[in-house]
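[Q] Does anyone have a clean structure-token version of this?
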Amino acid sequence: MMIELTSEEQHLLDSFERGEWQSKGQLADRTQELQEYARYTLESQKDLHLVISENDWEALQILALAEGISYQSLARSILHKYVTGRWSLATGIS
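[A] Here you go.
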């Protein structure tokens, strides 16, 4: 079974296969961050329904793609960092 890709997905795949992607070189930090995501996933969860603008939703998807995670995981991470004081709306610093 062959999966059909959108033109954008095909462009990304072609770019990756040409070796145009480079690691950010922060594997240890990224590994710790992903382990935290996994830990949060295993914890008890509650559903949250949000209505956001289409522009914000598209931007969230693009950012998540760049990070290699789902847009739900990215939104969950942003919210978690905010409520735990690791990120501030005033400063935008994590």
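[Q] Thanks! Anything notable?
[A] The radius of gyration is 16 Å.
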